[in-house]
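Example protein
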Amino acid sequence: MSEENESATAKLDEIGKIITQVQEQNSKVKANLRELRKKSESIEKRINIEIDKNNEMISKAQELGDDQKKLDQLITDQMNKISEKFKALERVEQELLEKEQTIQNLIKEVQK
């Protein structure tokens, strides 16, 4: 029995060593997981900061787009007003030419 006890003790010692190794590995894995979790949280914070920056830039771009639309509309309105004034000037010029022609015709009539 003594040999059996020694064999059993040796096997128990071997099992104990294996258990110790597994526990050490488990501790390392847990430590690695904690480290990965910290890194993951850090990366998540940076991503959220970048998302916030991007959202802010998108918002500003939309504001600029709205401002550009308003500016384009103002320019269009001003161009339309200028166009209307040129048309009015052309009508006045035409009327003046017609009056000038009428005056010249009257002068010719008077001279006859």
Observations:
- The radius of gyration is 47 Å.
